[in-house]
Structures are given as C-alpha cells and as structure tokens.
Amino acid sequence: MQRRTPNDRHLFYLVALAITAILMLTPLSAYAESGDDNGESGEEPSDSGASTTDEGGEPTSEEAPAGEQPAPPQVSPAAPASEPASEPASEPATEPASAPAPAPPPAKPEPAAVGYKKLAINGRVQARFSYENSDGAPRENEAQFSIPRARIKLKGHAFDQRVAFVLEVDFGKGSVSLKDAVVDFNIIDRMLMVQVGQFKRPFSRQQLTSSGKLQFVERAITDKHFKGGRDLGVMLHSHRKLPFEYAVGVFNGSGDKAQLDGEVSLDPSTGKGEITSGKFSNVPKLISPMIVARFGWHSNGFNGYTESDYKGSDFGIGIGGGVMLEFDADDDADSAIRAGIDYALAVRGLSSTGGVYVATAQNGKGFGDQDFDSVGFHVQAGYVIKGKVEPAVRYARLMRAGSDGASQEILAGVNVFFHGHNLKWSTDFGVLTEEAHGDDSVDFRTRSQVELAF
By residue range, what is the domain housing residue 427? Predict the structure, then answer.
C-alpha cells in the first residue's frame, strides 16, 4: 500500500473537515432563508448533504481534491499496526446525517383579512382664488387665496367583501374636521345595505354629488338653505349604481359641524372670549331626530351623480326625490318638513342638472302645525367641446315667506379638463342678488380654482 506523507494526510483531513462543516451548516442556512414575510416557516429544509456526499457518506469524486485519489488496495500482511486508517471519511464525525435538523418554529395564526392590500387611499386638493364686490356704501371688496378642501379618504373592505368602510378627513380652511366615518354592510347583493356612522343625508342630488365632480366651483345657493349635508345616523339603502335606488335614514339632526355646548365669558378690555364650561361637539345631549328618505331611477348604466359629460357618453337620464322630516326634541317649535325632486341628463357632451325644493316650518305647538317657509330651484347646463373645454351657465332662485324676500344666483363658467375631474381648472363669475324690504343688493363675484384628485 502506498504511504502518504504527513503533509498529504494533514491536507486530506482538512478537506474532510471542511466538507463536514459545510454539510452541517447548509441545512441551518437553508432553514433560516425559508421563512416568509410574516415570520412563518416555509417548506422543510432539504437534505443538502445529498449533493455533496454519496449514500455511504463518502466524498464524491467532485469533492475529492485533485491528485489525492487513494491507490487500489493491496494485501500486505506486513503493514504495521500503527499505520493510520486510509479512509478518514468513514469516521463518525464525517457523517452528515448525525447533525439533527432544527425544529421549525410554531406557525403563527393567519392575520385578519384587512390591511394595506385591501385599502384604497384617495385625496383631493382644491386651490382657489376668489373676489367679491359686495353692495354697500361704499361697496366692500374681498379677495383671497384659499384651500377650501384638502381631503384624504381611506376606503376598503374589512374581513369580508360585504363589509365596507370609509374614513375621510378634511384639512382645508386651516382646520381639521371629520367628514365621513362609515361602516356599510351589504346584506343582500347591494339591494339591502345598512350604513352607520357619519355621512351625507340622502336628500338632494347636488349634495350627494361629490364636491370634486361639480360643474361649477360651488353648489347652488339652494343647497345650504335646504340643509343638504352630513350627519350622524343609520340608514337602509341600495347601491346608487342600480337602476332603482332608495335610502331611508334616521339622524341626530345636529349635522357634522362641531358647536359649543357650554358658556363663554368675554373680556371687555380685549373683546376675546374664553370657554368657561362645556366643549365643542356635534353630538347632542338629546337627539332631535331627523328622518330622511330618497328614491330614484337611472337609465341603464347612467351615473347621475357626476356633472359635466367630458366623456361624450350616450344618452342617459336620472330622476329622484327626497323628503326630510325634522322633529323638535326641545319643544321650541323648530320642526320642519322639506321635500324636493331633481334630475340629471347627459348626451354626447351636453349635460344638465337641476332641482326644485320646498320647506315648511312649525308655527304652533305640534309637529302638524306647519306653515310655508320657502321654495327654491336651480338649473344648470354645459357642453364639453372635444372633451377638454366646457362653457356652462346656472340660474338659481330662492323665495322665502314673509318679509325675508328672495335671492337669486346667475353664473357663467368654464371648465378645462386635463384629466377629467381629477385634474381640472374651473372658473365662474356672476351676480348674487338679495331682495328684502323693497331694497335690492347686488354682489359681484368671481372664483377660479384648480383641482387635483387621486
């Protein structure tokens, strides 16, 4: 048998030791790299020793160092007993199977099916310049830049496609206010849905149309007078994209604007006030229930809750009506009834919307003691030229009972669509007339606004 020199034996032992270390470390590194992002282990680590050793644990021909192949065995009884073994790979230390694989960590529970993958984030910013010349002696002038709306909206589904949520916050006008906080349960395939939280009362079409999808910079003067807006409550409704829609809700009657429920003391030297008791809130101590209902119909596929037909759609029309019953919980004769009907139509770039509204006010001890309070209407129309530029006009009139007189709004405007309602430039100008006690006042106004929505 051919003898190895001491240097040859040492080199052979070092190679065998290195192979053994690689075999022992490879399963650990493979396991460490197999976990997913949630910390849960993946597949069991493979037997990496199979790629570097044969079934008997001997180094393969690819792993044996070049020039160190052992000679064929020869029978030599004269070999001394002290001769070192010629097969060091058969030692127990070189057996890769002797290194136990580490046990995988216990699996973590599946996370709830809600998170960023099911969350949509939308935003809208409106930057505006406005100028108003008000009637007086002398006439007053106001001009300013403002950001009337800067909103962030989060919406998505939680745990199930039938549970939707919306959270919208407004940072415009230099303050922070909560606009929508809604949980919506889809009970029967968008035909029966239950919505709870703070959201818009289902009364008029123009109020239900987003402020980012209007034909003019602001809604008509009839919107605020007939109390379109948000409130806290619960509502049964169908999806608005269905041909027939309905909504019936019960609300606090306090709206979404925080008011002071307490007392304020004034410093006569400075004229500044200090809150001495109470706090700002839109949650009343005693609910003044407001019941609001709306019913409507739209032609197939027509979206009646967006103004301006910049897409040049085929003919579509929608009609609807709402009623609002405002009860008085404090017996101070503040109950009222409001009703209205509205429409929307669009065809090949031409669009028009409008509505007629009427209101009564309590004039006695009971809810049934109602007298006429006011009536109003608005109508507007526009035509989009080549999908980019839209001239539009609006006329609105509000007539009140008694000596309160009437108001009217006459506006002309133009929209330039860069990316539909998501990026547009809107400008309107006109007059607002107040008729009271036989004396008319005329205010001139112009507003120009750039809107970005995403």
Answer: 117-253+288-453
The Cα-based distances of 97 to 30, 50, 151 in angstroms read 16, 10, 63
Rounded CA separation 207/200 (Å): 8
Instruction: Find out whether 90 and 418 touch, Cβ atoms under 8 Å.
Output: no
Tens digits of per-residue pLDDT, 166-200?
Answer: 999 999 998 999 999 999 999 999 999 999 999 99
Q: Residue 307 in contact with residue 351, Cβ under 8 Å? A: yes
What are the DSSP E strand ranges found in 287-438? Answer: 290-298, 316-326, 336-347, 350-362, 370-383, 389-400, 406-417, 423-436
Residues 232 and 95 in one domain: no
* Mean pLDDT in residue range 154-166: 92
Classify 134 as helix, strand or coil. strand
Question: Dihedral sign, CA of 191, 192, 195, 200?
Answer: positive
Domain match, 337 and 432 both: yes
SS3 48: helix
Cα 110 to its chain centre, rounded Å, is 25
What CATH number did the domain enclosing 400 receive? 2.40.160.10
Q: Give domain status of residue 270, yes or no.
A: no
Q: Which residue has the tokens 């008085």?
A: 328
My answer on whether 98 and 151 are in the same domain is no
351 is written with which tokens?
A: 């669009």
Do 242 and 339 share a domain, yes or no?
Answer: yes
| 225 in the same domain as 316 | yes
Helix, strand or coil, per DSSP, at residue 419: strand
First-to-last CA distance in the chain?
Answer: 83
**Is 415 contained in some domain?**
yes
Overall number of domains in the chain: 2
Judged on CB neighbours under 10 Å (0-12, 13-18, 19+), 202 is buried
**DSSP string of 336-378, one letter each residue:** EEEEEEEEEEEETTEEEEEEEEEEEEE-SSSTT-EEEEEEEEE
Q: Tell me: do 298 and 405 sit in the same domain.
A: yes
Q: Give yes or no: residues 313 and 355 share one domain.
A: yes
pTM for this model (two decimals) = 0.71
253 vs 284: CA distance, rounded Å: 9
3-state secondary structure (DSSP) of residue 28 = helix
What is the C-alpha to C-alpha distance for residues 376 and 222, in angstroms, rounded to an integer?
Answer: 6
Could you tell me whether strands 140-157 and 163-170 are parallel, antiparallel, or unpaired per DSSP bridges?
A: antiparallel
Each residue's pLDDT tens digit, 111-139: 555 554 578 999 999 999 999 999 877 88
User: Is residue 76 in a domain?
Assistant: no
Query: Does 382 fall in a domain?
Result: yes
Q: Are 126 and 147 within 8 A, CB to CB?
A: yes
Instruction: Identify any residues that bridge with 392 across adjacent strands, giving them in sequence order.
Output: 382, 413
How far is Cα 222 from Cα 354, in angstroms, rounded to an integer? 11
Distance in angstroms (rounded) separating the CA atoms of residues 377 and 226: 11
